[in-house]
Amino acid sequence: MGAFGHMRAILTLGLPLVGSNLAAAGLGVTDTIMMGWYGVPELAAVVLGTNYLFFFFLFGTGFANAIIGRVSMALGGNDETQARRDTRMALWLSVLTGLVSIPCMWHSAAVLQALGQAPETARLAQDYLRIAGLGIVPMLVVAVLRSYLSAFERTQIVLWVTLSAVGLNIVCNWLLIFGEMGFPEMGVRGAALSSVLVQTVSMLVLMVYAHRARGLSHVALWQRFWRPDWSAFGAVARMGIPIGLTILAEASMFQMAALMMGWLGTIELAANGIVMETSVLAFMLHMGLANAATVRAGRAYGAGAPEHLRRGAITVICMSLVIVAVTVTAFLGIPEKIVSLFLKPGGDSAQILLLASGLLALAGLFQLFDAMQVLAMGLLRGLQDTRVPMWIALASYWLVGIPTGYVLAFHVGLQSHGVWLGLAAGLATASSLLMYRFWVVRGGGRRPMA
């Protein structure tokens, strides 16, 4: 298959994944925008609470990300039975992770205050988390089912369900945050309840589709679901836990950045949330391509076609570079117009607009690094290579990114800009080492695990 053939295949698979990832990020963006309209203290609390919740959620998605590679490799070897076994145990592991996480949401205020957050912001964040935390189980189940369906190249349903979830979230937020059409005005609790409702509906729709869809029903995903399969359980755990820790290493760097912004002040925290949500939207484009790369690499690896894998990797990287050029141009060229979408006039909005616009322009500087690290990670997952990438991520984000941001912000005096320069340093280190591992150590998929 030539470059255009790879591009067509990646776009066919990847565009719906890009769209669904953008829509999934849009859930957080709509919450941020609508809470920004409601009030700055509430916006800061939801930003803080969302970051705290996602700290647990993103670790749990390690099992979902493992499934993309494992199911794709199984299908490349024409083994649907193994695909079913792995997916079932990934669902078991995800549900267990979610249940263990819920108590941490209930007592989050004490944790957030211990981490230096203002008592009122921490209390509001806990109000949000005591409801929103109940949605972590359906969120993780949705993540596994999205990966399962993506490995079967059923990405259209993933896209439409996620888009519908965004629309439902907007309606529920409008009703519950602001108290429209006779509903009580619930503020941050309304945003939390809306999220739980949306995630539960999405989970039920995907469960029914996976059970009944033509071409999938014969896999019998839910048949005797309660029976343990310890061999598959262990295999998914061994791959998923390193992936979860890898994702957590990056997420914790951004979480730590949010905490450091909270130390600087509420204005800085709110501005950081806006810039983070915008950066996540750009990141989701590359994440969609990375998911497609994992599926394609896994199938080629399972079928024993390394040259096919290598050509596909080159194609997806070139596609990502085009997206980088567009997003960097937007972030550097029109930051004020982008940030203003999140704010209503009055109050502290002018201060937030000024600070967030500068941070967004700065965020444009690390778009290349962010894109390349997620693509390299996706390709390595297609090769079932997760342990060394985990150590690379931990070292890059915790030994480079976080310390650099702290020193620049609080010792050099760059404050919020120093925090984001630290993020760029961590991402640059990770992208360089991960690309080296894929292309040099693994030879672009031609060499066995090192």
TrEMBL record:
Superkingdom, natural source: Bacteria
Location(s), subcellular: Cell inner membrane
Alphabetic keyword roster: Antiport, Cell membrane, Ion transport, Membrane, Transmembrane, Transmembrane helix, Transport
Signal peptide: none
CDD domains: MATE_NorM_like
The keyword Ubl conjugation belongs to this UniProt entry's keyword annotation: no
Membrane topology: Multi-pass membrane protein
Annotated Pfam families: MatE
Annotated transmembrane regions: 44-68, 89-108, 128-145, 157-178, 190-209, 230-249, 269-292, 313-332, 352-369, 390-412, 418-439
Protein name as it appears in the record: Multidrug-efflux transporter
Organism: Thioclava litoralis
